[in-house]
Design brief:
Length: 268
């Protein structure tokens, strides 16, 4: 006759089951960061954006623009993927973070402009912010805002995305600015700094909450986070609202063949 299991055996079996469940949950939560960590190779940050107005043709100008901008977008997206993987690992360990992990979390929260998360809703808010953007969306919006890299703000300020600043002397004064307005179009030391500022703006500003929410929904459903899907949530980027969104979507569709030559894995 088999011996009756002792309470100690029951306790050991209970702990073992808990460990199996925890490992399964960890694998599910961290499925994005089990991929090999990318080695970030910083591209040329481009200290002086070239004036592309002298390009031989429109198609040549477009390819020059995309060719210059895409490595910067790829670099920033790779950095965001690493930060997201780091954040998800912290989320798994959230009940017993080490001092070093607490410091990492504080740095991420500060960079993405949220309080250090203490409850699940705060964690989810931060996770919505720490994520990459479709390459095609960034390329096309940069093209739209900078007139394909020929605007005064692009050439003289390395600003491809029309970002404003409000301290006198922080940028270039728009020629059509009203007397009552005080904004300037920000001047950046490099084009990479402009890309980073723009992407951080979409990932943190309250005006783009719908974009972040849509991206999170698509990701949770296992669907492609496409440029067209997120462009629908950019009505607040311009005073033109939905007309601006329609223009962005048209540009994405028209320039799809050129974009796919540079980013074949992405479906705009």
């Amino acid at each position: 006759m088999a011996e009756t299991p002792t309470p100690k055996i029951f306790h050991a079996l209970f702990l073992l089951c808990g460990l199996v469940i925890a490992i399964a949950a960890y694998r599910e939560m961290t499925r994005e960061e089990v991929e090999p960590v990318e080695v970030l190779q910083r591209p040329d940050p481009i200290r002086h954006w070239p004036n592309l107005a002298d390009a031989d043709s429109v198609d040549v100008r477009k390819m020059q623009f995309f060719g210059l901008l895409k490595p910067l977008v790829d670099y920033e997206n790779a950095r965001l993927r690493q930060e997201r993987a780091q954040l998800m690992a912290l989320y798994v360990d959230r009940d017993q973070l080490t001092e070093h992990q607490q410091q990492q979390l504080s740095q991420l929260a500060a960079r993405f402009k949220t309080p250090v998360p203490e409850v699940n809703t705060q964690w989810h808010r931060l996770l919505r912010r720490v994520d990459e953007l479709p390459v095609a969306l960034v390329l096309v919006q940069g093209a739209n805002e900078s007139a394909w890299g020929t605007s005064r703000f692009a050439v003289k300020g390395n600003n491809l995305f029309g970002q404003w600043c409000f301290k006198r002397g922080c940028g270039l004064v728009p020629r059509a600015r009203s007397e009552a307005a005080r904004h300037e179009v920000k001047r950046f030391s490099t084009v990479l700094a402009s890309v980073q500022s723009y992407m951080n703006n979409l990932n943190t500003h309250r005006a783009y909450f719908q974009l972040r929410q849509r991206r999170a929904q698509l990701r949770a459903a296992g669907k492609t986070v496409s440029a067209l899907a997120l462009a629908s949530a950019l009505q607040n980027y311009s005073q033109r609202g939905q007309a601006y969104v329609r223009e962005l979507k048209a540009m994405i569709r028209i320039n799809r063949p050129l974009i796919e030559q540079l980013a074949p894995a992405e479906t705009p």
